[in-house]
Amino acid sequence: MVITLHQIIEALGGRLHGDGTKQINGLAGIKQANSFEISFVSNIKYEQDLIDSKAACVIVSPHLETIAHKRGDYIVAEQPYVYFALLTQLWKQQSSPKKSGFIHPSAIVDTSATIDETAVIGALCVIEAGARVGAFSTLKSRVTISEGCVVGENCILHSGVVIGADGFGFAPQKSSQGMAWIKIEQLGAVKIGNDVEIGANTCVDRGALHDTVIEDGVKLDNLIQIGHNVHIGKHTIIAAATAVAGSTEIGGYCMIGGCVSIAGHLSIAPHTQISGASVVTHSIRKAGTYTGLFPLDDSAAWGKNAAALKQLSSLRDRVRSLEKINNN
């Protein structure tokens, strides 16, 4: 595929300095780009890479324009990374136009399910009774949408995603021989908003009584577990291998790293950031950046150590005060 710089500007905006007829045949990183490819730089720490780059054109922010001017052709955009992301979409649309209104012959779709005529349903997908898939949404191969669940418009569900499996709900029943577990039927569904993307082999469980809800613009990576009755606010993004236990509410615009464990029945404030591998055992009421990882131990000892750890800062200050007194 070949596209000119003028065509890029016409489609995405921005301000071009250079030859608009120059042809681009690929996208690449700033270090790897050759004289027929376009790249981007969004951070001043890559200034030297920008200077040395052999790229045909580089997308830069206004504060890098002077440096870019010395190098060669460039496009100025307020958010170069976002501009480059949009360019990747433009490139894919033109190089491999998206199918529309296609259901693979191997897919199994219940007669009571509703599939928008523009949706794409991949090989070996299963869409059960009463489920709905909205306009321009794409289900890759082997996606399962269980009964009564809803997928909104412009969503992408990657291979192996399961929407609406039973949540992990069991009532303990004591007996003389020990504990038995009585299944609680999961009577809710899953409601997914618009512009949601869900990575491969991620599972979103149906609600026990009320629905599990994924709001507009949410992005979930691969191998994530979302428990029953979880509610995820709009435009929150969660990295791979994170698990969210049942009935937790995560606010909008959160950023949650990979391998995070979030306990059930908690509330996470909007705009919260949680570092990878953190363990969240209590609600986060105030937006901020949170990190927490503590070694496995006997529960009672762990609780004591955790309590002591929280006092380390004040103990340090007390020790410093005592040292000053002694030194005087």
What order do the helices and strands come in, and which of them pair?
Layout: E1 3-4, H1 5-12, E2 15-17, E3 23-24, E4 26-27, E5 37-41, H2 47-52, E6 57-60, H3 65-71, E7 74-76, H4 80-95, E8 102-103, E9 108-109, E10 114-115, E11 120-121, E12 126-127, E13 132-133, E14 138-139, E15 144-145, E16 150-151, E17 156-157, E18 162-165, E19 170-175, E20 178-183, E21 190-192, E22 197-198, E23 203-205, E24 212-214, E25 219-220, E26 225-226, E27 231-232, E28 237-238, E29 243-244, E30 249-250, E31 255-256, E32 261-262, E33 267-268, E34 273-274, E35 279-280, E36 289-290, H5 299-310, H6 312-327
Walk me through what this model shows.
By secondary structure, this protein is α/β, with parallel strands linked by helices. The protein is flat. It contains 6 helices and 36 strands. It has 3 domains: 3-95, MurE/MurF, N-terminal domain (Udp-n-acetylmuramoylalanyl-d-glutamate--2,6- Diaminopimelate Ligase, Chain: A, domain 1), CATH 3.40.1390; 102-290, UDP N-Acetylglucosamine Acyltransferase, domain 1 (3 Solenoid); 303-328. A 10-stranded parallel sheet has the order 8-11-14-17-22-25-28-31-34-36, with no helix packed on it. Strands 9-12-15-18-23-26-29-32-35 form a 9-stranded parallel sheet, with no helix packed on it. The model has no long low-confidence stretch (mean pLDDT 95).
